[in-house]
Amino acid sequence: MTTPGPLRVAEALSTQPLLGEALAEVIDQVKGQAGGHLDIAVLHYSPHFCEQAQQAAEAVQSALSPDALVGCAGLGVIGGGREVQDGPALSLWAARLPGARVQAYSLSVSQADDHGYVHGWPDVDADASGVLLADPRGFPLRPFLDSLRRGGRYPQVIGGIASGGEARDGGLLISNDQVLASGAVGFVMDGSMRLTPLVSQGCRPVGPAFRITGCKGNVVQQLDGLPALETLRSVLDELSNEESSRFRNAPHVGIKESDHGEEGGAGSYLVRGIVGLKQTEGALAIAENVHQGMQLRFHTRDSTAAHDDLEERLSLQSGFFEPPIGALLYTCTGRGTPMFGQSGHDIDLIRHHWPDIPVSGFFAAGEIGPLAGRPYLHGFSACLGLLMPYDGE
Description:
Layout: E1 8-14, H1 19-34, E2 40-45, H2 53-64, E3 68-73, E4 77-79, E5 82-84, E6 90-96, E7 100-112, E8 115-119, E9 129-134, H3 141-151, E10 156-161, E11 173-175, E12 178-180, E13 184-191, E14 193-200, E15 203-216, E16 219-223, E17 226-227, H4 228-237, H5 241-249, E18 251-256, E19 270-278, E20 283-286, E21 295-301, H6 303-320, E22 326-332, H7 337-340, H8 345-353, E23 359-364, E24 367-371, E25 374-378, E26 382-389
Parallel strand pairs: 2-3, 9-10, 22-23
Antiparallel strand pairs: 1-6, 2-6, 3-11, 4-5, 4-23, 7-8, 7-13, 9-13, 10-24, 11-12, 14-26, 15-16, 15-21, 16-17, 16-20, 18-19, 18-21, 19-20, 22-26, 24-25
Helix pairs in contact: 1-2, 6-8
C-alpha cells in the first residue's frame, strides 16, 4: 500500500548498551521526525543485539507500524552522522513515501537434484529498486546474483552481507515479523520513489587496458597475445617506485565486457583481487571467472584511491542531480578506521555534499551494488542507495 501524508524520511542512532534504552532513543527521534504508519523501516544493529532481534523488531513494528520492516546485523553501524565500529550500536531509518509501494521479502534456499533453488524473490521489474541483505555463510549470494544477471529482469539493488554475528547468529536478519539466522532479506519499492545506486570500489587503474586473449576459468593466460605475467611486469616497469609498491601491497584487476566502452576509470570495471601467480605458465589467477575478449586493466587499492573514487562519484552526483531525500549506505568492514585511520570517512564525505539528508547503514562482509546496471558482489567498496523521486523515465 502507499501511505498518505507528506513525504518524510528520518533516522537516528543510539549507542546505549541496553536494548530497551537504545530502542526508546531511536524510536522517539524517528517518530518525532516522521510520525507513525510509515512505508519502510530499516534497522541496523551491532552483534551485541542479535539475541534480542525479535524484541527489537516487535518494538519498531508496534511504535511505527511500517508496511515493511527489514534489519541486519553488522560489525559497525552507521547513523546520526557517525560510523560506530566498536561497541553496541543501533540505528533506525524510516520513511513515509506517498505514491510509492514498498514490500519486504525473505529468501530461502532448498536443495533438489543436486541444485539449489532460491525462493521468495519478489515479482518486480527493472523500474523497481531495493535492498538485499544476506547471511554470511549459507546463502548462495554469488550464484543468485549470477542468475539475476542472466535473467535480465531485476530491480536495481544495493545491500550487503551481515557481519559479526558468528557468535550470536540467531538474529542476523529481520523481515517484518521474521527473525532469521540464514537466508536473505530486503525490500523493493516502485512507484514514485527509487533508490538510485552509487558504487565506489575504492581503486584506481594503473597502466593501459588490455584484451584477454587466453584464459581458463579464473586464470588469465594471455593479454593482447602475450603472457599475462609478462604484461604485468611491463606495466610495473613503467610505474614509479611508490606506485609499484602500492600495487604490490594490494594487487587487483578490473574486468569488463568489451562492449562496455574503451578505457575508463575504476568505476567502469568490476574490480577483483589477484589471488595467485603461475610462474611456469606466465599466468595470473584472479578472484573471478573470465572469458576471452573481455577487457582487463590492473588496479591498485589504498586509502587515497578509496577517498578519491568516492569523492569523485559524490561530486558528479551532487553536481548534476537534485539532492537525495535520504540514503542507505553499505560499506566494507575493511573501510572506516582500518583503511582511513579514523572513523567516519564515508559518512563525512556524504554529509559534505548533502549535509542534511538522513543516512543509515552498516559495515558489511561484502557489498552489493550494480555495475553497468547489473548486480555484483564487491569488496572494500561503499555502496550507496540514494532515495530519489522517480517518474518512470
